[in-house]
Amino acid sequence: MMQASSGVGIARVEVEVTIAAPRERVWKALVEEAGRWWPRDFYVGQTPKDFVIEARPGGRVYEDWGNEAGALWYTVLVVEPPAVLELAGHLTPAFGGPATTTARLTLKEEGGATVVRVEDSVFGRVDENTSPRLREGWRALMGSKGLKAYVEQQTP
């Protein structure tokens, strides 16, 4: 769904990925081990040291480049372990903005597996490519290139 007026509008996507592991394991990997599963080509810095999710209200989601340098992706709005992580961030012009983004990640246990659902909304400068790009990015991040691949590799 997209409404645009002079390039300003709203883009909203929903993505679901099923991970063959219990919810507590997926949550732990999501918030405590992000630097281990975050795909290399998703970093914006040249020489990132880590990717960090501070899972507490007001916490940061950021790239750590060392020496107090880095990139802030999101601020944590809501944390309900092991089920909900809500984030808010800003897209600068270098990353397609100016725009504001809010993302809600929910983890639901289904028959020994975990369904990770991402709902992401971007308000600001959007175009016809924004939603497909977001959907593709979240699928890769939560799926075959990121969290799912990492957790399923680690889980016996």
From TrEMBL:
It comes from the Bacteria. Coiled coil: none annotated. InterPro entries: ASHA1/2-like_C, START-like_dom_sf. Pfam families: AHSA1 (PF08327). Residues 20-152 form the Activator of Hsp90 ATPase homologue 1/2-like C-terminal domain. Belongs to the AHA1 family. This is SRPBCC domain-containing protein. It comes from Archangium lansingense. The lineage of its organism: Bacteria, Pseudomonadati, Myxococcota, Myxococcia, Myxococcales.
